[in-house]
Amino acid sequence: MDHRELDSQEDPTLALLTVEEAARRLRIGRTLCFRLIGSGELESVPIGRLRRVPPAAVHDYVARLRAANRSAAAAC
């Protein structure tokens, strides 16, 4: 099984994701993922010189996007 298959199944043993893994889960590019991290929209933690994203942070980000979308749709 290659890393893309594991990532798509959201391996529950991963405590933290690389920025690239988080970007893959969100189906966005690495640069945009770093931008979301920089703006605080996507939670991350530093480990030395590395940056890691908790898997729950990806889910939380998507939940906020969905809630904002529902609010915008209800306002129309």
Number of strands: 3
Terminal-residue CA separation: 46 Å
Q: What is the overall silhouette?
A: elongated
Please state the structural category: mainly alpha
- Helix fraction? 55-70%
Runs in which pLDDT lies below 50 for 5 or more consecutive residues are none
Major β-sheet profile: 3 strands, antiparallel
Tell me the quaternary state: single chain
Spatial order of the strands in the main sheet?
1-3-2
Give the helices and strands as they follow along the chain: HEHHEEH
Task: Report Rg.
Answer: 14 Å
Mean pLDDT: 90
Fraction in beta strands: 5-15%
Alpha plus pi helix count: 4
Explain what this protein looks like in three dimensions:
Helices cover 59% and strands 12% of the residues. The chain is built from four helices and three strands. The chain is elongated, with a radius of gyration of 14 Å. The mean pLDDT is 90. The chain has a three-stranded antiparallel β-sheet. The longest helix has 21 residues, at 55-75. The N and C termini lie far apart (46 Å). Helix 2 crosses helix 3 (30-39). The protein is mainly alpha-helical and 76 residues long.
